[in-house]
Amino acid sequence: MWYKTKSLYETTHHSNHTVVKMIGKSWTAIQHNIQIGFAIISFTLNSTLILLILRHSPKSLGLYKYLMIYISAFEFLYSLMDIIVKPSSLLNFLVLTPYFCKIFLLTHVPQIFHSYGSTFLVMVNVKESPFSLNVALFLAAVYCGFFGASMAIFGLHFIYRYLVASGSKHLEKFNISKTSFFLLAPVVYGILWGWVAYCPVGQNPATGEHIRSNILETFDLQVEDTVYIGPYFYQKQPNGTYEIDMQSIIGMSVVYLIVSSSFFTIFYFGIKCYRCISKLVPSNDSYRTKQLQSHLFWALVTQTMIPVILMHTPVTLVYAFALLDQDIGMLSGFVSMTIAAYPALDPLPSLFIIPCFRRALKNYLTCCPKPNERAQDSTVTAPRTGSIMSIANA
Questions:
Q1: Less crowded by CB within 10 Å, the N or C end of the chain?
Q2: A GO molecular-function term, please (predicted)?
Q3: Rounded to 5 degrees, what are φ and ψ at 114?
């Protein structure tokens, strides 16, 4: 009788493992399909926005035009990097882009976001990759670096909007060289985050042993077939005790400083910008000025909430759970989807809230361009203190 019970247990146990693997593969396939979909949307919307900025921006937009192009180009490259890190995704993208409806038939998912105990990992399946392990690890670190660079870009956006809204004299001193220096902040943030990903929290044997059985059970993957990046806060020692990994603590301290500085910059300059916009509206509010204030406010709120909801909050939460040694497993995969959604959704406020771009987009979509509108957009002028007002008022 005992051997029948044992056989039943082994059958049930094996069946449970099979179900877990099926769920893991299906979940990562869903993540993959959504990431590809958002990448295509990002390419389309950011290319459209760059075209509209170049052809329909009012003259008073000034250097802000180049900042908007810089951000859109970065988001385009970010989405491209998301695909390049996943070689099979790149092939599928090139083959299936003309047949968008077939994208959801994809099954192979080489990149995985996963939480297990005190680790949160970005893993890349290199089993069928043309890249070597070292190249795949480097590309994964560069991908993480792009995320770090985006933290600085959020801040730059709001700093510049505040300077324009307040009529700061610093803008008069802005030339190409100073603008280039201003735009170096994302490069510095990206290098710092990429260094953290490659060195302090890069691939190491202790993390590999910690996740070995879990990723085999969940994703049917061997550790040797993956490269992975992420902290392992509490490392298990041979005697069964746990020790805090100082490399992970140092690396994550740098990451939290980057995220916190981005948070602070967005809210500090966002609030100051809105206060300046409110003061610019004259006391005898007309319908036009009220409408203008509404455009600026909602553009500001929307462009604040997109990175906070899609980037800052998810990443902060998953790292916090790992630090608290709380396993959220496959739920951490939502982070990959929110990160992919950011460059796809971020152009929308500019496309639909700023009237000069909204009108131009509508004319293109309805195939009835009005020549006089482009002339109007190119000749709008405004005082220095009202430059940001002319953006919404154009």
A1: N
A2: G protein-coupled olfactory receptor activity
A3: -150, 140
CB within 8 Å of 291: residues ≥ 6 apart: none
At 382, the amino acid letter reads: A
Q: For residue range 3-60, what is the model confidence (pLDDT) as tens digits? A: 444 454 444 444 545 545 556 567 667 777 788 888 889 999 999 999 998 888 777 6
Residue 340 to residue 83: CA distance in whole angstroms = 10
Quote the pTM value: 0.74
AA letter at 82? D
Percentages helix, strand, coil for the chain (3-state, rounded to 5) are: 75, 5, 15
User: What residue type is assigned to position 347 of the chain?
Assistant: P
CB atoms within 10 A of CB 101: 7
Residue among 280, 66, 75 nearest 162 (CA): 280
Residue with tokens 């390049």: 84
Whether the CA torsion 4, 10, 15, 16 is positive or negative: it is positive
Q: How far is CA 320 from CA 115, 194, 257, 328, in A?
A: 11, 20, 14, 11
Q: Which residues in 331-361 are b (16+ Cβ under 10 Å) and which e?
A: ebbbbbbbbbbbbbbbbebbeebbbbbebbb
pLDDT by residue (tens digit) across 51-92? 998 888 777 666 778 888 888 898 888 888 877 765 444 444
Answer yes or no: are the C-beta atoms of 375 and 381 closer than 8 Å: no
Collect all residues with Cβ–Cβ distance below 8 Å to 235 and sequence separation of at least 6.
Answer: 206, 210, 242, 243, 244, 245
Question: Nearest CA to 160 among 77, 61, 298?
Answer: 61
Q: Where are the domains of the chain?
A: 18-393
Place of tokens 């909801």: 309
Q: Is 258 in contact with 144 (CB distance < 8 Å)? A: no
- In the chain, DSSP finds a helix count (H) and a strand count (E) of 15, 5
Element (H, E) at 256: helix 246-280
Long-range Cβ contact pairs of 95-102 (< 8 A, separation 24 or more): 97/40, 100/40
Q: Alpha-carbon distance 109 to 126, whole Å?
A: 10
Q: How far apart are CA 32 and CA 92, in angstroms?
A: 11
Domain covering 18-393 assigned CATH 3.30.70.1150 in the classification: no
